């Protein structure tokens, strides 16, 4: 069987390694893409959890405000118009329920009657939606988020008319709901360091920020691009510049805190931190793929070398010095045994038989195979004087042959 050339085997070997890389690289890339999708899904889940927490908080606070205003409208002090006593009751209620920013009672035209802020005369700002809606409908109404510049906090105002009293102007019961506890009610999302959860109203007023801004600073400090992006209604995943310039992968959403309360929310995570796990997985998988390719190359390469050594096999060495074997002197004239010609004489036949008998005798005297090979070589020179030749024997694996003796002086040494 003719051996495969080393060049062809090496070329086939080198083709297997790129083939492995070609098949494995798509798997690595798909795995990395899946990791990124999972990371984005975690941000989306955090936004959904934030939406649920914000809406639940608003529902609880608005329900609490509605029930409180209904109760206030039924107490005797309000019905009698004992406003100093009502102010004391409102002050005690705010202390007992700290999620209220202020409780107050106004006349329909805006004059203040009672307030939880005993040291201040309540004044109704003109143009408040909740006030006008409560007067118009005679029911509970919620206004827009407001910023108290004195207390430095956001509150949500709501109002409800008090029961009418005979001969008295109708009063409006007012409650302002604090939203600081909104941050405490947001579930821990397990987001990477540097992440921000932000809640704003439809106009961009920051209602809650997790983690909170430094005390005394603007809640939207460093988040202007994010707040601007949140002004556009809608949901989805976008990238916005962060405070340090690093892009932040942001899940946008919106919430409804009652029939008239709308707002926006966002969960923003630094892109590097978000995709850190996917990047580590990609590097780990690429290293594993390259290591596997190198291991495959090493195994096949050393396997090729081992196979080549088995094919060549150890040649039977010729003795450095031919042992002394008695050999008869060659005849005066070479024996031409190449062809059986009619001119062969009886003398030639006799001499040939004598030489064969001599060779057989010498072979019987040999004690090793190497000696026998040497005898065959010497007599082959006599029998075939005009030719070069060799005796070849199979190697141990049976696939190669090895030269054990050769004759002829007119050509280069034979190679296996």
Strand content: 15-25%
Largest sheet: 6 strands, antiparallel
Element-by-element helix/strand order: HHHEEHEEEEHEEHEEEHHHHEE
Uncertain spans? 318-340
Number of alpha- plus pi-helical segments = 10
- Report the radius of gyration as a whole number of Å: 52 Å
Number of strands: 13
Shape: rod-shaped
What is the first-to-last residue Cα distance?
Answer: 14 Å
Give the structure's gist in a few sentences.
This protein is α+β, with helices and mostly antiparallel strands and 416 residues long.
Could you characterize what this model shows?
With 416 residues, the protein is an alpha+beta fold. The protein is 44% helix and 20% strand. It is built from ten helices and 13 strands. The strands form three sheets. Strands 1, 2, 3, 4, 5 and 6 form a six-stranded antiparallel sheet that branches. The protein has a five-stranded antiparallel sheet with strand order 8-7-11-10-9. A hairpin with a 5-residue loop joins strand 9 (236-241) and strand 10. Helix 1 runs antiparallel to helix 8 and helix 9 packs antiparallel against helix 10. The longest helix is centred in the N-terminal third of the chain and has 67 residues, at 6-72. Residues 318-340 have low confidence and may be disordered.
């Amino acid at each position: 069987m003719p051996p495969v050339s080393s060049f062809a085997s090496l070329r086939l070997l080198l083709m297997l390694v790129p083939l492995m890389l070609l098949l494995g690289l798509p798997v690595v890339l798909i795995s990395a893409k899946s990791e990124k999708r999972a990371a984005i899904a975690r941000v989306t889940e955090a936004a959904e959890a934030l939406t649920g927490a914000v809406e639940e908080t608003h529902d609880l606070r608005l329900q609490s405000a509605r029930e409180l205003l209904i109760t206030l409208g039924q107490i005797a002090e309000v019905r009698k118009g004992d406003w100093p006593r009502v102010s004391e009751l409102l002050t005690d209620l705010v202390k007992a329920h700290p999620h209220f920013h202020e409780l107050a009672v106004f006349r329909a035209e805006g004059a203040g009657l009672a307030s939880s802020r005993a040291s201040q005369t309540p004044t109704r700002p003109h143009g408040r939606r909740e006030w006008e809606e409560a007067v118009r409908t005679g029911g509970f109404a919620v206004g827009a988020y407001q910023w108290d510049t004195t207390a430095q906090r956001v509150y949500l105002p709501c109002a409800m008319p008090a029961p009418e009293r005979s001969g008295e102007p109708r009063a409006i019961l007012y409650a302002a709901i604090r939203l600081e506890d909104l941050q405490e009610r947001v579930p821990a999302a397990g987001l990477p360091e540097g992440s921000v959860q932000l809640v704003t109203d439809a106009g961009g007023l920051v209602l809650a920020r997790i983690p909170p801004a430094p005390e005394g600073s603007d809640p939207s400090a460093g988040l202007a691009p994010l707040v601007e992006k949140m002004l556009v209604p809608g949901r989805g995943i976008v990238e916005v510049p962060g405070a340090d310039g690093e892009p932040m992968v942001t899940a946008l959403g919106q919430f409804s805190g009652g029939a008239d309360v709308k707002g926006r929310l966002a969960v923003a995570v630094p892109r590097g931190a978000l995709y850190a796990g996917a990047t580590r997985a990609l590097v780990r998988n690429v290293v594993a793929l390259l290591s596997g390719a190198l291991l495959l190359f090493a195994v096949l390469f050393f396997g090729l070398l081992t196979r080549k050594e088995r094919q060549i096999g150890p040649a039977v060495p010729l003795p450095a010095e031919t042992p002394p074997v008695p050999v008869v002197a060659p005849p005066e004239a070479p024996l031409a045994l190449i062809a059986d010609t009619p001119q062969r004489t009886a003398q030639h036949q006799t001499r040939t038989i004598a030489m064969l008998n001599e060779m057989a005798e010498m072979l019987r005297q040999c004690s090793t195979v190497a000696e026998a090979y040497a005898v065959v070589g010497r007599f082959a020179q006599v029998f075939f004087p005009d030719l070069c030749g060799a005796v070849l024997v199979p190697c141990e694996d049976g696939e190669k042959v090895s030269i054990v003796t050769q004759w002829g002086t007119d050509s280069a040494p034979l190679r296996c």
